[in-house]
Amino acid sequence: xxxxxxxxxxxxxxxxxxxxxxxxxxxxxxxxxxxxxxxxxxxxxxxxxxxxxxxxxxxxxxxxxxxxxxxxxxxxxxxxxxxxxxxxxxxxxxxxxxxxxxxxxxxxxxxxxxxxxxxxxxxxxxxxxxxxxxxxxxxxxxxxxxxxxxxxxxxxxxxxxxxxxxxxxxxxxxxxxxxxxxxxxxxxxxxxxxxx
Length: 196
Known about the structure:
Layout: E1 2-3, E2 5-7, E3 13-15, E4 21-22, E5 26-28, E6 33-37, E7 50-51, E8 55-64, E9 68-69, E10 71-80, E11 86-87, E12 93-95, E13 100-106, E14 115-124, E15 130-136, E16 139-144, E17 153-162, E18 168-176
Parallel strand pairs: 1-9, 3-10, 11-18, 12-18
Antiparallel strand pairs: 2-5, 4-7, 6-8, 8-10, 13-16, 14-17, 15-16, 17-18
């Protein structure tokens, strides 16, 4: 009974780019069947050692060929997080005029995968009136004080953690919406004498 020789790929690292990266091994004889798994206790499959998301992995392989001993082995690979740097929306994001907790503004266009808020700072006129509490379902969650002036502007600078990217900064220019003018008419203002 012969033994299949296995050559592990020389490049065992990559940077996340949204695409699958293959870390396949090369068997000799070349017609041997190579199967892979990320868990040695689960079934092996012919996925050619493909990994997409950032992280550290141990890839297990099994090589079989009729008339040869089955060969098992493993190797470690690393897919690094990508860099985004600093992002900033092209226009101001409008905040509602109603005060209270659990207010939200949609920032889903600037989130990638599972995201969470690491830290934040607020500058400008709005700094004394807003508290940011987190990120939920693609939206920035905040509390707005009762005395927040309409038309107040500022920047929320949020540091965001993501599955496949290094912590990145999102600078959000914000504007508190103007309040609608309210006109109150009482009964006396609606009464008058008939014109003859």
